[in-house]
């Protein structure tokens, strides 16, 4: 992990598949790709921050007029789709979401989308990220944010103690604080946004197998990355790997382990 791109889950080919599976998960849970409250016209301009493989934009492209501008931004371009597999109205560009917004992008977009910043935001410091999104928006533009609250994990069923043991070990490895996620409405208001909707509720039974599998995929990658750049605070690697193995076995016997999905819809105020 470099100083510039320290994404703990990495950008390998398999990670792209995980992100795209999680896109399907959010679509099933939410029932939409773009929130139906957001109006779309032929002139709409849409930005996807932390776009990764561009899967959200690629899905949106099938649902909006071909004149809608679709722009994806990410600090790394390693997962961007090749030009041959994207429509003419879609572009991608490297951009650090915690930095200043380039002048030509200020107030340009009708919609800004964010998803899964839970393993990127450090020390609950979201001010620069939310400010960046807000500056991209036109007055009256919409912010749509889909998030995973790993601070609210659902653990139950047979062998739940093995699941809880894994959860404790993994938290000791990651050192992330997720308190900011439930505080998103307040933080959005402080940035000058009007909060239209904030939903936080567990997945339905039909979604749980998908979310659990993607969780485990992320954990294997996270363990591999963190121990590659190991430090003295990490528990022995064999303990971490054994905890994952015990989790997988517990899930086979009906244990449940998944995070809480969160969605926010907000609008940038029009200053009269």
From TrEMBL:
CDD domains: AdoMet_MTases. InterPro entries: SAM-dependent_MTases_sf. This is Methyltransferase domain-containing protein. Belongs to the methyltransferase superfamily. LaeA methyltransferase family. It holds the Pfam family Methyltransf_23. SUPFAM superfamilies: S-adenosyl-L-methionine-dependent methyltransferases. PANTHER family: METHYLTRANSFERASE, RHODANESE DOMAIN-CONTAINING PROTEIN.
């Amino acid at each position: 992990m470099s100083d510039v791109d320290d994404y703990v889950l990495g950008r390998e080919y398999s990670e792209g598949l995980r992100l795209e599976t999680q896109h399907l998960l959010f679509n099933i849970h939410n029932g939409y790709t773009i929130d139906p409250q957001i109006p779309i016209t032929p002139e709409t301009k849409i930005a996807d921050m932390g776009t990764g493989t561009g899967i959200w934009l690629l899905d949106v492209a099938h649902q909006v007029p071909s004149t809608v501008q679709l722009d994806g931004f990410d600090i790394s371009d390693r997962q961007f789709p090749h030009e041959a597999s994207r429509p003419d109205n879609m572009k991608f560009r490297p951009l650090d979401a915690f930095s200043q917004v380039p002048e030509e992008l200020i107030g340009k977009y009708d919609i800004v989308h964010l998803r899964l910043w839970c393993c990127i935001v450090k020390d609950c410091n979201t001010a620069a990220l939310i400010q960046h999104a807000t500056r991209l928006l036109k007055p009256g533009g919409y912010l749509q944010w889909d998030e995973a609250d790993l601070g609210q994990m659902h653990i139950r069923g047979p062998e739940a103690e093995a699941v809880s043991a894994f959860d404790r070990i993994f938290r000791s490895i990651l050192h992330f604080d997720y308190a900011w996620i439930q505080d998103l409405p307040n933080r959005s208001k402080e940035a000058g946004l009007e909060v239209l909707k904030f939903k936080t509720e567990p997945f339905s039974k039909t979604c749980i197998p998908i979310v659990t599998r993607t969780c485990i995929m992320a954990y294997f990658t996270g363990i591999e990355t963190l121990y590659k750049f190991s430090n003295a605070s990490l528990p022995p690697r064999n303990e971490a790997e054994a905890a994952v193995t015990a989790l997988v076995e517990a899930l086979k016997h009906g244990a449940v382990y998944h995070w809480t999905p969160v969605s926010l819809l907000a609008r940038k105020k029009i200053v009269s």
